[in-house]
Structures are given as structure tokens and as C-alpha cells.
Amino acid sequence: MPIVAPNVNVLEEFVLNKCDSFVAMGVWPSGERLKYRKRLKNFHVDDREHALYLLNSFVYYNMDMCVALIRGALLSLTNLIPQVQTLNEHLSNWRQLLADSIFVPVTGESRNITDSGNILAGYLRRELSVPQDNILTVDQLYDSAYSYQLKNSKRIILFDDLKLEFDNAVPLAADYQIAPLILIVFMENAFKHAKFIQSAAVNIYIKTLLQDNWFSLTIKNNYNKEKQSSSNGIGLTNVKRRLEVIYPNGQHQLTISQDEIFYTVTLKLQLVKIGLNN
């Protein structure tokens, strides 16, 4: 029996009711902060279904959830604790595991107190009572590596870091439409580079701009030349083909460049106002 897609109005009611429930339960911040109803109205009626599926897939973690995730990640280390019979023995071994571990927030070249690694270190102190002496910078780790690892057999746990900047200069009420699922490929590729950066913070810079009827997207991210992803080619090839079909005859400009540190993508699209397309 074929599966029938839900009516767009029914789908919209379902998704918005779910979002409202998350706000009412305190899982999401207020609707005024996320503005999901107002943003949904910016989509052309033909693209509304795509927007609803994206909104339905939207995931937001509030502060309590983030703390729970950190606790869960650290509790996964319990497989390093010997299996014991009593709760008291388990708790004792858990406290010993934390005492025998060195936690290192990994930062980039420009260190900032708001780096995610430093925020995670704060959670360790507050939520799990990890002593400050057990939280070291990378430099302190290098200076102390011999004594900690060889003399005291300390376990070293690194916290990775992501620095994300988003600069949006597109008015919220802009009445232009963009073909769905065009921009996401470039954003996904930028985040894919994250798993290949090991010795420094992952830096991703996203800028959007609307001038007259030209929309521009710039994404800049650092990368590891020795461990570049081989999976980007198919997605990039497909999106280039889509651009040629949807924005032909000079209606788009795609520029991709890279230097020793950064990979940069700039996409410009000539847009049509909602209701004026053929």
C-alpha cells in the first residue's frame, strides 16, 4: 500500500504544536527567541513543506541537557572501572578514576575564556567536583607530561574545541526565495572538516548578505591538508549541477579557494521575489 504524504496544513499544525509543546515544557526557550512561526512565514508556499521538515528535524539542547550530555560522556568512562559488587565500591572507584585523570581543554591559537573547551572545564569543576589541579592547559600538559604520565600514571582526557561565528546581514522580512537544500551542502562540508582537525580548534565562519536581489553566502573553515575528506566530491558535484539548472545564465557565482590554513566557499545567487517567479 503506497504511503501518502500528509497534507501541508496538517503537517504544519503537527510541527508547530510540537514546537509549542517544547517551549511550554521549558525544553526550548520562548517562541520569541526562536521565532520559528515568524521564520516559517518567510518561505514561499511551494517551499513550505521543505521548511516544515527542516523545523521538525531541528534539535536544541538547553543548559540542563548539555550538562546531562557531559555527565553521560564522562560516565562512559566507567568501562575503565573494574567490575565490583557494591555501590560503595563503584563510587569509590569512580572518584579514583576522576582523581587519576588529567582533563585538558583544547584551544586554538587565539585563546578565549568562552571557548567550548573552557566551558566544559567549568562543568567538570561544578558538576563533578574535579579538582582544579586536574584541569591543565595544553602548555601545562606538555610541561608536566613526563611526571604525570610516567611517574604518576595519570590518564589524559582531551576536550575538543569548535569556534563558530555567524554574521547574518539578511533582513528577517526579506521577501526573496532560495531553492531548498542548496546551501546545506556547503555548511555540511565545513563541519565535516571538524573531525580532521586535531592539533587546534575548529574554526568555522559563516556570513550571509543580501544586496538588491543578490544573496551571498561565505563559509570559511580551517582544515587539515594531510587528512582531507574524500566524501565531499559527490555532494559538491551534485549541487553544482543543481545550480546550473536552477540559476542558469549568470544567475549564480560559485568560488572555491584554499590556502595553507583555510578553505573558503563563496556562493552568490540572483534571487526572485516571492510571487514573481514563473
List keywords for this structure.
globular; 21% strand; 278 residues; 10 helices; Heat Shock Protein 90
Describe the structure.
With 278 residues, the protein is an alpha/beta fold. Helix content is 40%, strand content 21%. It has ten helices and nine strands. The strands form three sheets. It has a five-stranded mixed sheet with strand order 3-5-6-8-7, with helices on one face. A two-stranded parallel ribbon has the order 1-2. A two-stranded antiparallel sheet has the order 4-9. Strand 7 and strand 8 (262-270) form a beta hairpin. Mean pLDDT is 76; it is low at 146-151.
Task: Explain the layout of strands and helices.
Elements: H1 8-24, H2 31-34, H3 36-40, H4 48-56, H5 63-75, H6 87-99, E1 101-105, H7 116-128, H8 138-151, E2 155-159, E3 162-169, E4 176-177, H9 184-192, E5 202-211, E6 214-222, H10 232-246, E7 252-258, E8 262-270, E9 272-273
Parallel strand pairs: 1-2, 3-5
Antiparallel strand pairs: 4-9, 5-6, 6-8, 7-8
Helix pairs in contact: 1-4
